[in-house]
Amino acid sequence: MLRDKRGFEHTHHQASFSQEKEAFLYDLEGKQLVTLTASYEELTESSAVALAIRLGLIQESSHLTCTEIGDGNLNYVFHIYDHKQEKGLIIKQALPYAKVVGKSWPLTLDRARIESAALIKQSEYAPHLVPAVYYSDTALAVTAMEDLSHLEIVRKGLIAGKQYPHLSDHVGEFLGKTLFYTSDFATNPKIKKQFVKQFTNPDLCDITEKLVFTDPFFNSETNDFEEELRESAEALWADLELQAKAAELKRIFLTSAETLVHGDLHTGSIFANETETKIIDPEFAFYGPFGFDIGHFIANLFLNALSRENEHEQQHLFDHVVNIWATFKEVFTKAWKEDSIEAFSVSDSFLETTFDRILKEATGFAGCELVRRTIGLAHAADLDAIPSPTRRIQQKKAALTLGKTFIKQYHTVETASDLVALFQPSVKE
User: Fold this and answer.
1) Which is more confident, 84 or 320?
2) What is the pTM of this model?
3) How far apart are the C-alpha atoms of 423 and 208, rounded to whole Å?
4) Nearest CA among 77, 60, 58 for reference residue 69
């Protein structure tokens, strides 16, 4: 028997699903154990079930159901559930193209390897905040993982008006631990450079480089927005000061291999309820700047705040913005004082300058995310779901204004409260 990192037992099968497949179960340290090898084929609901049964991850039963639940842009996601045992399983498969565009946009299947490796690495530091990985298969581009269907996607919950009191506590803890422990502050530089190679993710970084940092700032074919926003978009494209700052931020993204970032940390990549939080989908993971994930998450909190009717409804989102930064700093500082291997970490001023830089860069990244979610290829449902067309356009214009403000002023931000303070003037313009 094999046990995965969380103690789940698996039989070491010759899974006959495919004869030439490279596949892995995981031992107690999260190390990959090669079981078999296979060529790529797209899964269906029935073949996903067959794979799960043959791997011993679920028992064959007449009570099994399988539903393709993927509503993302890049992958298939199958939810397999045994109604008699009340046990579920998720099988995620990367497609060799971007699902949101089609086969005209080919993508590497290696992102499935990166996603499973990132989840395992993150689980070393925050096991209660990521789904357990049971199995991965590099050739089939499959990851089998913990069923989180008892939770809900945070973006959908926020749009429905729900609150998650521990959201920023948990996300702040996740970021404080994973970003610190995968950086040079806690990892031997030689080993860290090996991790940089392991998590090199050119295809998905290219998506971010184009769709977040480049295309929204120009009249690009990938942009997607209502005609009523054209004047605002054209003003943005003509803003040379804005473009210079966006170029700075893109350069930071391209060159700062500081730590293992999630790479796509928004409210649609988080499952939660009132007490529990799980961060999913790190297929964009790579070694990048400390502030990237923080900025992305904060931007998506502000996107939901923009969809709210008044400041009273927005307040808990503002509280999350302030608290995620406070929690991140607290967790990071504790790790810094206890586990830093950096000789200069004895300097409190070095820590403070590090935080200052991270917050400033996070602010700029948040601005880029606000702009791209408004006029770029992949929108945020928070704004798109506003029922009134007039108000929807109004709030999208506000999102562009807020994004531009964050980008232009990212060097001046000193506290997370400064971000909240910039919100109201931007919305009222």
Assistant:
1) 320
2) 0.90
3) 25
4) 77
Its CATH class, for the domain covering 152-428, is alpha beta
Which residues in the chain are classed under CATH 3.90.1200.10?
A: 152-428
Give dist(CA 2, CA 11) in Å, integer.
6
List, in order, residues 6 or more apart from 236 with CB less than 8 Å away. Answer: 216, 217, 242, 371, 375, 400, 404
- Distance, in Å, from the CA atom of 156 to the CA atom of 384, rounded to the nearest integer, reads 12
Distance in angstroms (rounded) separating the CA atoms of residues 415 and 418: 5
- DSSP state letter for 136: E
Q: Is the dihedral of CA 95, 96, 97, 102 positive or negative?
A: negative
Angstrom distance (rounded) from CA 326 to CA 333: 10
Percent of residues in the chain assigned helix, strand, coil, to nearest 5: 50, 15, 35
What's the rounded Cα separation, in Å, for the pair 132 and 6? Answer: 7
Look at residue 254 and tell me whether its pLDDT is greater than 50.
yes
Whether 364 and 406 have beta carbons less than 8 Å apart is answered as yes
The values of phi and psi at residue 40, to 5°, are -75, 140
Regarding the domain with residue range 2-145, which homologous superfamily does it belong to in the CATH classification?
Answer: Phosphorylase Kinase; domain 1 (3.30.200.20)
Evaluate whether 136 touches 282 at the Cβ level (below 8 Å).
no
Instruction: Please give the backbone phi and psi of residue 108, each rounded to the nearest 5 degrees, phi first.
Output: -70, 145
